[in-house]
C-alpha cells in the first residue's frame, strides 16, 4: 500500500465452519486494501465482535448456532443502522434470501462465488452499494412472482439488481 492510499477496508468474518472461516481470512488478507479485524463462529459472537471492532464490512454465514445470520444481522443493524453486511452462504432458497435482505444485508452471495467476485462485493458494499448476483435476484423475483408487484416495486427491484445504492434508488 502506498502512503497516499486510503486505509484498508476492515472486514469481519463470521462462519461456524472453522476451515471456511480460516480460508476466507487468509484469502482476504492477501488483498492490500483489505484487512480482517475479527472472526467468529456464531451469531452471538458476531454481535459482540461487531460492537468491539465496528468493521467496515461483515461477511456473515446464514445458518449458525446460538443466533442465525439473519438474527445477528437484525441485531447489528438495530444497534448500528449503517452496518454493511454481506451474507455468504450455501443456501439459495428464496425465503433465505428474502429474510436476509429484509434483516438489512446489502449483499447475498453463495459460497460458490469466485474469490474475485467476493472481493468485488466487499469493495462494492463498502462503497455503500448493494451487490445481488443475477442468480440470487432471479430467486428473489421467483419468490415475489406469486405476489403482485406494483410497477414502482418492479422498478426498485431492477435498480437493486443493477447495484444501485438506496440513495440512488430514492433519487431515481
What's the quick description here?
This protein is of the alpha/beta class. The chain has eight helices and five strands; from the N terminus they run βαβαβαβαβαααα. It has helices at residues 18-28, 43-53, 69-79, 94-103, 115-126, 134-145, 151-161, 166-171; strands at residues 9-14, 34-40, 57-60, 85-89, 107-110.
Order of helices and strands: EHEHEHEHEHHHH
Alpha plus pi helix count: 8
Question: Widest sheet: strand order?
Answer: 2-1-3-4-5
Gyration radius, in Å:
16 Å
How much beta, percentage-wise? Answer: 15-25%
Low-confidence stretches: none
**Beta strands, count:** 5
How far apart are the termini?
Answer: 37 Å
Structural class: alpha/beta
The general outline is globular
The largest sheet is: 5 strands, parallel
**Mean residue pLDDT:** 88
Tell me what you see in this structure:
With 172 residues, this protein is of the alpha/beta class. The chain is built from eight helices and five strands, in the order E-H-E-H-E-H-E-H-E-H-H-H-H. It has helices at 18-28, 43-53, 69-79, 94-103, 115-126, 134-145, 151-161, 166-171; strands at residues 9-14, 34-40, 57-60, 85-89, 107-110. It has a five-stranded parallel sheet, sandwiched between helices. Strand 4, helix 4 (94-103) and strand 5 (107-110) form a beta-alpha-beta unit. Helix 2 runs parallel beside helix 3 and helix 4 (94-103) crosses helix 6. The radius of gyration is 16 Å and the shape is globular. It starts with 8 loop residues before the first strand and ends with a helix.
Topology (elements, then pairings):
Layout: E1 9-14, H1 18-28, E2 34-40, H2 43-53, E3 57-60, H3 69-79, E4 85-89, H4 94-103, E5 107-110, H5 115-126, H6 134-145, H7 151-161, H8 166-171
Parallel strand pairs: 1-2, 1-3, 3-4, 4-5
Helix pairs in contact: 2-3, 4-6
Amino acid at each position: 500500500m502506498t502512503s497516499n492510499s486510503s486505509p484498508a477496508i476492515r472486514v469481519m468474518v463470521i462462519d461456524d465452519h472453522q476451515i471456511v472461516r480460516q480460508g476466507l481470512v487468509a484469502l482476504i488478507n492477501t488483498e492490500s486494501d483489505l484487512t480482517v479485524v475479527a472472526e467468529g463462529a456464531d451469531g452471538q459472537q458476531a454481535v459482540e465482535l461487531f460492537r468491539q471492532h465496528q468493521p467496515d464490512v461483515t461477511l456473515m454465514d446464514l445458518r449458525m448456532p446460538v443466533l442465525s445470520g439473519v438474527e445477528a444481522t437484525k441485531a447489528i443493524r438495530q444497534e448500528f443502522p449503517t452496518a454493511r453486511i454481506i451474507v455468504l452462504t450455501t443456501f439459495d432458497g428464496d425465503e433465505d434470501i428474502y429474510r436476509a435482505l429484509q434483516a438489512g444485508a446489502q449483499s447475498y452471495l453463495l459460497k460458490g462465488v469466485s474469490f474475485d467476485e467476493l472481493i468485488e462485493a466487499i469493495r462494492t458494499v463498502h462503497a455503500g452499494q448493494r451487490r445481488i448476483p443475477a442468480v440470487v435476484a432471479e430467486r428473489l423475483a421467483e419468490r415475489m412472482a406469486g405476489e403482485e408487484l406494483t410497477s414502482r416495486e418492479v422498478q426498485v427491484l431492477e435498480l437493486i439488481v443493477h447495484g444501485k445504492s438506496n440513495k440512488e434508488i430514492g433519487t431515481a
